[in-house]
Amino acid sequence: MKSRVLVVDDDTALAEMIGIVLKTEGFDPVFCADGDSAIGVFRSSAPDVVLLDLMLPGKDGTEVCRQIRAESGVPIIMLTAKSDTVDVVLGLESGADDYISKPFKPKELVARIRARLRRTDEPAPERLAIGDLEIDVTGHRVMRGGATIPLTPLEFDLLVALARKPWQVFSREVLLEKVWGYRHAADTRLVNVHVQRLRSKIEHDPEVPEIVLTVRGVGYKAGAAQT
Amino acid sequence: MSSRARRLVRRLRRLGLRLRRRAGRLAAAWRSSMQLRVISTALVIGLAAVALLSAFLASTIRDGLFEQRIDQVLAESTRSTVQAQATFNSATATSTAQVQQLLNDMIPALQVSGPGGRDVFLLRSRSNSISSSVLEPNTAPQLRGLISDDLRSSTAEADGQRWQPVAIPVGAGSVPGVMVGSTVEVPASGTFELYYLYSLQSEEETLAFMQQVLGTAGLVLVAFLGVITWMVTRQAVAPVQRAAEVAERLADGHLDERLVVRGEDEMATLARSFNEMAESLQDQIQRLDELSTVQRRFVSDVSHELRTPLTTVRMASEMIYEGREDFEPVVKRSAELLVNQLDRFEDLLADLLEISRFDAGAAVLDAESRDLRDVVNSAIDQAMPLAERKGVWLTGEFDDGSASADIDPRRVERVVRNLLVNAIEHAEGGPVEVRVAVNPMAVAVRVRDHGVGLARDEVGHVFDRFWRADPARARTSGGTGLGLAISLEDALLHGGWLEAWGRPGMGASFRLTLPRRAGIVLTTSPIDLVPQRAADEVVPGAARHDENGPSSLPAVHDLASAHPLTGEIPAQGEHGNQVEVR
């Protein structure tokens, strides 16, 4: 089955061009040209991944991002012309999983979409424990005391990557490669922002993290399992 | 010199030193406080005025007091003398005993005749030739010595009265007095001198009291003067002090700070002018801020507006490029050119935006503690493919031990990558050497090539935007011409240095020096900009001041003094060139 990609961009030429590229790569593109109708199109098309321009007429891209994130964990990739820290961080904080700055090459775009979609080949059932959390890797669930904590797929991947090797400290670069699928050094702010988001969902007190620990000057590691 | 004298000299010297130090402190206080100056001046002048006035008053009072008393004393003595003479004239005494009796009766009568006491002495005149055994009676024999010979002789010669001030001994001290002398004719005994001794003690006491009052009044006056001056200067100085405080706050960036305007006086005018100045400063700064915001906004907008169509063009060109095998040779070549030039266009756009960000002051240092060796290693890894293509041998020499510093790894890596790419492209197949060194304050990396090198006037321009070493040379290297300009901005953003050195045919050397922690002001770099071997190869004194440094650079210095190997005055002939940017 073809993966459906929702392209939210007001520049019709660019949207059409992205469409051409996606079609040749075997995706099923759906388009939306303004922020106000984005959420409607998202509901009706149920895409597997969303490409979202941050600057949109009508509703702002970050607002659209927040709306989609409110009702779905579907991977969101921001298209941004601004690589300035504030804009990127704002987009990531509103729920985007990844970003790609304009101008990008078709191959780069496709690689990012593929990286967000790759999550099919789950092996044998696997259960992990980290802190007081229980992770059902196959069932894609994280539980604390029997209650499920909703996480986006990316946050889930990040948590699983840390929990699988609780003895290891992961540098931001390694996490970028393992979770985002970047092969070259990229923007480590992606990791910082998503660790913050993850902590706000799973930690008792995000200011004093017990599950995802920071190792100063190196990166992050999993907290000890309590069971 | 004896040891004692030496000790004394030492002690004197120490004392002198202490005095000088104290004087120095006083002088500093004098210079720094207007209030102190004004009050001390007023006090000194006031004190002098009061002293003069008191002295004048005291002497006037004393003179008046004594003159009056003397007049009174003289009148009184005249009266008494006349009375005594009358008594003598009308006396009928003829025998010695009778005369003696007369004199003895006269003396106590004379003593009490005036107001207040006096002592009376009756002396036989020296010129009295009548032999008589009459005794010389007096009321205070112990004070007889106060009658001086001068007075006696002048009294004897004169007709009227003569007087002389004397000091009457009282106990251990003395009180002022006046001795008044005149002559009387005693019946049957010839001329006698009659002396009255008046004590001026009460006048002396009055005078002392007056002086005391005057002194106290003077001191009180001076104290008042001090207080008044203090209050007046306080009124004048306090607003100035307030203005100074507010000015300091303004300078610290608190632009909303204003002075309180009270009344209509000069101080209020000062406050108003001051506030106007602050207002206009604030306005200007705000306008500049707005301008900067607009500029940043513009850059951001241009970025977005240019990037979106560029993305479409880029994707389209890639699609065309993918299918180039099916095209005719001309179209195929065109597709290749299109893709290549789009890469360049993109790099150029990216660099332009980066430079605009620096110009707008929007560049932010994203510093973290990193080992410079790791960053340099990563840059070397990225430059390796280019080095291999160009057949350049790339060597790295790193100091042992940590080269950690608070740096923005993205920017530093970009700088080093830039320097490496530059060096490799200009190395002409020769080796490129990278060296990392540290000292307690700074970390540094130097990239040295042995290629074409740089000429005297070229060194000053390497950090210019869009400057190329040889305009005639083909632009094969594909750089944007902004690489070194951005690198320089990156270095300056860290508070670091980026310096260049070069010599035609001897290659070039670039050195990046970064402070290890924010706030450290660099004074030296851990590595020499000019490698020792190269400096030895040529005439010593290879440093040259480059006056033609790019105008956009903060400062261009001569390295001569900082570099021991090149410290001499440049001689004519072959020189290396270096420019330092701090």
Describe the structure.
Chain A contains eight helices and twelve strands. Chain A has helices at 12-24, 35-45, 61-71, 85-93, 106-117, 153-164, 172-180, 189-202, and strands spanning 4-8, 28-32, 49-53, 76-80, 98-101, 127-130, 133-136, 141-144, 147-148, 170-171, 212-215, 219-222. In chain A, the strands form three sheets. In chain A, strands 2-1-3-4-5 form a five-stranded parallel β-sheet, with helices on both faces. In chain A, strands 6-7-8-9 form a four-stranded antiparallel β-sheet, covered by helices on one side. Chain A is globular and about 55 Å long. Chain B has 582 residues and is of the alpha+beta class. Chain B has a seven-stranded mixed β-sheet with strand order 6-8-9-11-10-13-12. Chain B has a four-stranded antiparallel β-sheet with strand order 1-4-3-2, with helices on both faces. A two-stranded antiparallel sheet of chain B has the order 5-7. In chain B, helix 9 runs antiparallel to helix 11 (483-493). Chain A binds chain B through residues 11, 13-14, 17-18, 20-21, 24, 55, 81-82, 84-85, 101-107, 109, 185, 217, and chain B through 300, 303-304, 307-316, 318-319, 346, 357, 362, 364, 366, 368-369, 378.
Lay out the secondary structure.
The complex is a heterodimer of chains A (227) and B (582).
Chain A: E1 4-8, H1 12-24, E2 28-32, H2 35-45, E3 49-53, H3 61-71, E4 76-80, H4 85-93, E5 98-101, H5 106-117, E6 127-130, E7 133-136, E8 141-144, E9 147-148, H6 153-164, E10 170-171, H7 172-180, H8 189-202, E11 212-215, E12 219-222
Parallel strand pairs in A: 1-2, 1-3, 3-4, 4-5
Antiparallel strand pairs in A: 6-7, 7-8, 8-9, 10-12, 11-12
Helix pairs in contact in A: 2-3, 4-8, 6-7, 6-8
Chain B: H1 3-32, H2 34-90, H3 96-113, E1 118-124, H4 149-157, E2 162-170, E3 173-186, E4 190-199, H5 201-251, H6 266-322, H7 329-359, E5 368-371, H8 372-390, E6 394-398, E7 404-407, H9 409-426, E8 432-438, E9 442-449, H10 456-459, H11 483-493, E10 497-503, E11 507-515, H12 532-537, E12 556-557, E13 577-581
Parallel strand pairs in B: 6-8
Antiparallel strand pairs in B: 1-4, 2-3, 3-4, 5-7, 8-9, 9-11, 10-11, 10-13, 12-13
Helix pairs in contact in B: 2-3, 2-5, 5-6, 6-7, 7-11, 8-9, 9-11
